[in-house]
Amino acid sequence: MTRAGFLKLLGGAIAGAALPGPLAALRAGGPGMGGYDFWFTRLKYNSGDWDVDQRMPANLITSLIDYTSLRVDPKEHVVDLADPRMLAAPFCYLAGHKAVEFSDAERRNFERYVRNGGFVFVDDCNHDIDGLFAKSFESQMGRIFGGDALKKLPNTHPLYSSFFTFDGPPATSFELNGWGDDLIHDYLKGITINGRLGLLYSNKDYGCEWDYDWRNKRFLAEDNTRFGVNIIMYALSN
Question: Are strands 151-152 and 92-96 parallel, antiparallel or unpaired?
């Protein structure tokens, strides 16, 4: 489903909710949230620790402004997963280190958002052996979408060529330095609904990889947030 199709579905997705101005505009297929094409939405959930890698959103937002022509909101927006407002976000991010146990309202919104054309990027920040976040989050996805819904993405997936070109998921320094589970994850996982990727799931800790003072980017041999640009551009165009 295209982003335009997603916007048209918002009326059914948030039926009965009182919509502020920006969401009413989205329902009509126009620009949302202050006239922006994109705003970064972090999902807050009651269990675990949702407020990790706090500088990462600013770095991705800066990269979108640097590399693309999108009208990008410079602020990060934090929205409760149980809040119907999250259903109007063009992109959502969810991460943590600890065990995840969604409430009924959180589970209901997560499923509704993904099934109706939304896109969630979920990053496991605790990639230890038998990590609490990974085991609990994957269990939640099995409960919502079925045990076999979360599948490995091939390295030929359009995600890897949506803006920049990659031959698969870039490794992170946490993997290369032997932190966490001492594994190089050469794949990402996802949940596809009606041929469209609605959930992208990483065990690579991209959030912490991109969590640094933006002034330090000049010391990188290559901007490591470029893959984040791919993720967002894919989310907006499919």
Answer: unpaired
**Cα 111 to Cα 208: distance, rounded to the nearest angstrom:** 26
Rounded CA separation 7/10 (Å): 5
H or E segment and range at residue 190: strand 189-193
- Convert the pLDDT of each residue in 49-66 to its tens digit: 899 999 999 999 999 999
- Classified by CATH at the fold level, domain 36-237 comes out as Rossmann fold (3.40.50)
Tokens of 140: 């939640």
Sequence ranges of the domains in the chain: 36-237
Say what the pTM is: 0.84
Contact 191, 198 (CB under 8 A): yes
Percent helix, strand, coil in the chain, to 5, is 40, 20, 45
Query: What's the pLDDT tens digit per position in 120-161?
Result: 999 998 766 568 899 999 999 999 999 999 999 999 999 999
